[in-house]
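Why do we bother with holo predictions? Because pocket geometry can differ from the apo form. Keep that in mind while you read this record for iron/sulfur cluster.
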Amino acid sequence: MSKAQISEIFQSIQGEGKYAGARQVFLRFFGCHMHCSWCDTPESIGDTTRNYKEMTLKEVVSQVKSLYKDCHSVSLTGGEPLLQVDFIAQLLPLMKKAKMPAYLETSGVLHKALSQVIKGVDVVSMDIKMPSSTGERAFWKEHEKFIDVILQNKKDFFIKAVVSSKTEKADILKAAKILSSKKKDALFILQPNTFDLGKGVVQKCDDFQRMCFKILPNTRVMPQMHKFMKIR
Ligand code: SF4
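The structure, written out:
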């Protein structure tokens, strides 16, 4: 029986993106392949702690079901959930059977893993990781392939870019151009980095939004609401 490394399972209100305000069960997978400089779940990356529980499919489904009352969907989040794609492939049919829609929160890089499970996913919340924001290399090609998989399968999705005090205009422009070339009316959310709110990131988002409007009309600015509400 397959097992997953799970950081935590809890019910809360989604604070980001298109479905902000929706009640969800959050199933947080342990481990991430990235090291974004502003990561708000460092305990789930795997660098500083091995704090997770090995759980069977049956245990995960049972806990998720017990928390699911009045929820919109189950957020498969992390870390990077697609690192445990074999487990997710087994989990999704069981979620469908229990009428619990799957909302995938991902760094938007692991397109091969996404291809394995996309048919069972209902909503994709995908990040675009810009080198000037994350402090890592660029992933433009991977992001393009990831978007292709979503579009080929006609899934509900939106793309989120975290804007930090270090984010450069050229990166935002590149992200917007890629997205616009794939889907002109795609929802693009500029999310000011919560840790940098006192460092002019809201003004930056304002400027970037005006710039993006020309090529991607559905660009919005939205902070992490759950941080303002002081909930998980
Ligand atoms: S992809 Fe997400 S979990 Fe991974 S390091 Fe970046 S912000 Fe943290």
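The beta strands are 3-13, 23-29, 53-56, 73-77, 102-106, 123-127, 156-163, 188-192, 219-221.
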